[in-house]
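Worked problem 6 (solution included).
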Amino acid sequence: MRHFLSIQDRTKEELLHLLRLSRELKAVYKTHGRDTCLAGKVLAMLFEKTSLRTRISFEVAMADLGGHAIYLKPEDIGIIGRREPAKDMARVLSRYVDGLMARTFAHETIVELARYASVPVINALSDWSHPCQAMADMLTIQEHCERLEGLKLAYIGDGNNVARSLALACGKLGLALVIASPPGYELDEPSLATANNDGDGSARQVTDPAEAVVEADIIYTDTWVSMGQEEEKQQRIRDFQGYQVNAGLLAKAPSRAKVMHCLPAYRGMEITDDVAESEQSIIFDQAENRLHFQRALLKELMS
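Solution. The predicted structure is:
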């Protein structure tokens, strides 16, 4: 496993291995143990988009494993490819550090970094894919439901990078997926087709959130306005009316259903405060598991 760019690139066995390793390392650190497999190693973290969870979880994970992370903020690197070609950055940084993590706008930037880097490259988010988030989500679901295969995940909202990575993960790991989006915001057909080819054909797109949550084990939502879409904010708020995860929608799902959100959450828009704070919410376990999955990923790629 040289790079980690998309769920699509990894086999089911590789993904399950990463989940096992995540659980093992989580148990070690929860009991105040330590694994210094990355002692003396350095991860360069390239950020075109700012982030709370991504930066802190990767930085802490590297420190936990005995290594060091260097944060390169947007004003340090600019938009990759404008100030300096991604292929040049990849080859220069590969001579300084032992791994690259990038949080970018264009997915092509991640692909080019990986093509030219001689060290592992991790996609910490692109406009097309958010694989670390999806795998932390799978870890969280596994912990709360004690399995993955045969569960149903209802995703309510924009067919964005998070929805795509969840679809690919569900296909690989045996979960049924229903995405409910307003017309014009659906997940693209090729991504649904890939998820269905990998799985049992149970990934589908609908427009009615109430239909999506029937018999759902997990109800998942994300922001309606992602970073870089600020000019579309008012139009998106209008278009997504009726797609809020609230008490009324939750009442149409089984009482066992857990609520997830990858954060940041805009309470009162895609999710209400009472649902985010309810006993069914596992949002903050989900956020914590970014650390535990990424610790395992770094060990796998860089040790």
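Discussion: The beta strands are 42-47, 68-72, 99-103, 121-125, 152-156, 176-180, 203-206, 218-221, 258-261.
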